[in-house]
Amino acid sequence: MSKGPSGQTPEGGAPLVGDYPVYFNDPVQDAMMNMILELSAQLWMSMDRMYALEDLLARQGIVTAAALDGYRPDAERAKALRARRERFTHDILRDLKSLTEGAASAPAGPGTE
Amino acid sequence: MPLMEVDTSQALKRENATILPELASREDESYLDFVESLRSFVLDGMQFDQQLATRTAHLEDTSEPPAERLEKVREIAIDMPIASVRDRLMRSQQEMKWRRIVSSLDARRDIHLDRLKSAEGRGPARLELNPDFEAPEYANVHFHLQPDGYHKDPLAGFRYHYGTKVFFVGDNDKDQLHASLVNNHLPLPADGRVERILDLACSVGQSTTALKQRFPQADVTGIDHSEPMLRCAHHRAVELGIDVCFAQRLVENTGYDDDSFDMVFSFILFHEIPMRIIRETLAEVNRVLRPGGMFAVYDFMMASGMTPAQLYHRHFDSRHNGEAYGDDFCYTDFDGLLKEFGFVEAAPSKHLGTTQVWYATLPG
Question: A21 and B30: CB-CB below 8 Å?
Answer without folding.
Answer: no
